[in-house]
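Protocol step 4 of 6: structure prediction from sequence.
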Amino acid sequence: MIDFRMPSLGADMEKGTVVEWLKKPGDAIARGDVVAVVETQKGAFEIEVFDAGVLREILVAVGNQAPVGAVLARIESIGAGVPVGAEVPPPAPPSPTRAPPVALKPPPAAPSGERLRISPAAARRALELGVDARGLRGTGPQGAITIADVEGAAPKPSEAPTPPRRGFDPSAMRQAIAAAMARSKREIPHYYLSLPIDMARSLEWMSAENARRDVEHRLLPAVLLLKASALALRQVPQLNGFWIDGAPRLSQAIHVGWAISLRGGGLMAPAIRDADRLSLDQAMAALRDLVTRARTARLRGSEMMDPTVTVTSLGERGAESVLGVIYPPQLAIVGFGAARPSPAVVEGRFAVRPLVHATLSGDHRASDGETGGRLLAAIDRLLQTPEAL
């Protein structure tokens, strides 16, 4: 059996609430299937599995909280002899010596010790719908309870429970953000660097490129910053990873956590996986998709667990610069202010250029200013040849 546990969806998460099970005991599950929805202080997240098998037992019912790492359900592995896509038998009733806290209970016996006349299919349907079969009057042969009898006794759509909330509580999110940032400032010795980057070449190239595209496929300045940061981390990998058990643990994969502001307040930074390997078009599509799903509470839990570094951009209307706070256990956060016309020296002459102040907050336990400076310089070089991104 494989234990399906409450995932950690960030350094600020201690527990979560199961608000929906999308699979039931006996269902076959493929790797990557979403099986549950878990709500945290930052909202509701779809939780997928990473092993194929059959869901055998649910241990935490809808509406119940569980700490990070707690077993939510048990899955029988495909390796145990269950072929993918095969019809599987219903789960056996719980052992009388150990009654796990599951939401569904086996159908009880009829009053006075009489045998309850109900077909196996109807019994399973009663479990699915939460119908107590004891009070039903069967219309089948010899008064047996049928599927139609069970479904007729199920709550009508108007009586059905309210779907799980997919939004977030701004007050609870602020508390979660504050807890994570307070921990970061308390435990991580930050150092800060800043570098003004001339964005003239990037913006000119992007303007010419967009002129050849339809509106739906145009690029935004954010995608150039995203891709340049990812490629720079490939050149300076010492800042891509985590501080775990008193030592840096670098990641070969570059999963950029893009900071997204949410309507109503708050923010989160889900991952754009393998951002260094995406084309600009792929990165733009991934960025649009991630922002849309973050703002409609449709993120998957793995997207909150994967980031190896965070990048935040204040956009065209933001401040001149941002000095970010590292999201533990990551090693760095890269920030970009708004592109503003500013005086600059170009080929020995003063000129007005669109400058973006790029900043880096690094973990001094894992790197120092020389390493961080190389990362910012690499971002600058990459943005001077946007056609190569």
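Step 5 (inspection) to follow. Residues 170-187 form the longest helix (18 residues).
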